[in-house]
Amino acid sequence: MTGDFNIRDSLWDPTFPHHSTISDDLLIIADSFDLSLSTPTNQFPTRYIDNPSNSNLVLDLIFLQSGSDELDNHIIHLDWCLTSNHTPLTITILTIEENINSVKRSIVKGSKEEKSFIKEVIASFRSLNMSNMSDIPSLEKIVGNFADIVAESWEKYAKNVNVTKHSKSW
């Protein structure tokens, strides 16, 4: 969670001498989402004021997952603010390449298995006894039977396919 919170507090701005109960409320809300106030690796103001008689402020904050070893601090980029009066804040998220293969059942479009699957489902549907659909439980039973027919046919004609990072997304 990040943003310009417009709250001055000695908890995150060492040049500000006061503590606010509003800051306590913000920390309680963040904690309810299992987030903790991130500490910058470099301590600079995050908002700069054009008027030299006023001091620059720390108003932009980042809250990260509590207890995370990977995400425990952020960087304040003074040189990236360009025309803004706020400095960008960034975190680095380390990623590792992980190959997660999974298997799913599939029927190839246009294959003889697809044709057999469709033919079997249609034939089974036609053979369902639908003469007694006088109430909701009867209808639910017929629909359940049809679902069983489709599932059995699917298991009969579908083949296991390995899905890897190299598989086509379509």
- Specify the oligomeric state: single chain
Question: Helix- and strand-based class?
Answer: alpha+beta
Number of domains: 2
State mean pLDDT (0 to 100 scale): 87
Low-confidence stretches: none
Portion of residues within helices: 25-40%
Care to describe what's here?
This protein has 170 residues and is an alpha+beta fold. The chain has 2 domains: 2-90, no CATH class; 102-163, no CATH class. The chain has 3 helices and 8 strands; from the N terminus they run E-H-E-E-E-E-E-E-H-H-E. The strands form 3 sheets. The protein has a 3-stranded antiparallel sheet, with helices on one face. Strands 3-5-6 form a 3-stranded mixed sheet, with no helix packed on it.
Write the layout of secondary structure elements.
Blueprint (H helix, E strand, L loop, with lengths): L1 E3 L16 H12 L2 E3 L1 E2 L19 E6 L7 E4 L12 E2 L11 E5 L5 H16 L8 H22 L1 E5 L7
Parallel strand pairs: 3-5
Antiparallel strand pairs: 1-4, 2-4, 5-6, 7-8
